[in-house]
């Protein structure tokens, strides 16, 4: 289902197309897609009633930084950052792609739903793993663990690589796996220089329909942000426990605490976040941006 669009007072020449959990999509007068990153935050498949100030600007700036670092591996859909003033800093004009219906997840460490799957089956998306691995452990090699794209309010479902082949074809599936792992490995190398661990991340790809990259797979949407990735400080990494992180795990932890009084399985909308949680969450996003890019936000 679509979320009510935000109150961006864009010129009438921009047409609202869709709003997701975090991003709002418009068509520009020239026919480009305008991706706007809001300050909304989601958890447990709910869009929370509280926003995180500057979150959309941080996600956009970080994605643009990463697109530059990855250009030699895979082209991306960004055309321009010259956007209407009301969304400056949180929006980018992009080429429209034929999007792949797959969440391209790469895991280098055992965490989240991957850890749950491992405990239950000793596999993640059909990838067998050795026994005895602890939560947060380094995997023998980065794994491509794809998932289906869920509608807002639904859960992504982990699938096997063979299911990806059935869904989109062998050539496209090979491209997604190869590019996803290559991007993850590049990002992990850069992260290591910053004292960070990229535990896992997800990418979205689409095929260009025109221009110099016609027929090629391109990286799209956001990339390697705290919303799409699990970032850990290397100096505090200890397998066998939950790791401190720069992603929205802090928000998830508060929502499942006794203080919030809410349960993810309650069927009720989550409560508003306290000011302290908002401030600390914003600080984590800012720190992630500054540590990765080595630039002040």
Mind explaining what this structure looks like?
This protein has helices at 55-70, 112-121, 161-168, 170-193, 249-255, 275-293; strands spanning 15-19, 23-27, 33-37, 42-43, 46-47, 78-80, 91-94, 97-99, 102-109, 123-124, 127-128, 138-144, 147-148, 196-208, 217-220, 229-233. With 297 residues, the chain is α+β, with helices and mostly antiparallel strands. Strands 8, 9, 12, 13, 14, 15 and 16 form a seven-stranded antiparallel beta sheet that branches. It has a five-stranded antiparallel beta sheet with strand order 1-2-3-7-6. β4 and β5 form a beta hairpin. α1 packs parallel to α6 and α3 (161-168) crosses α4. The mean pLDDT is 93.
Blueprint of the fold:
Elements lengths: L14 E5 L3 E5 L5 E5 L4 E2 L2 E2 L7 H16 L7 E3 L10 E4 L2 E3 L2 E8 L2 H10 L1 E2 L2 E2 L9 E7 L2 E2 L12 H8 L1 H24 L2 E13 L8 E4 L8 E5 L15 H7 L19 H19 L4
Antiparallel strand pairs: 1-2, 2-3, 3-7, 4-5, 6-7, 8-14, 9-12, 9-13, 9-14, 10-11, 14-15, 14-16
Helix pairs in contact: 1-6, 3-4
- Provide the CATH topology of the domain at 98-266: D-amino Acid Aminotransferase, Chain A, domain 1
Helix/strand/pairing category: alpha+beta
Helicity level: 25-40%
Per CATH, the architecture of the domain at 98-266 is 2-Layer Sandwich
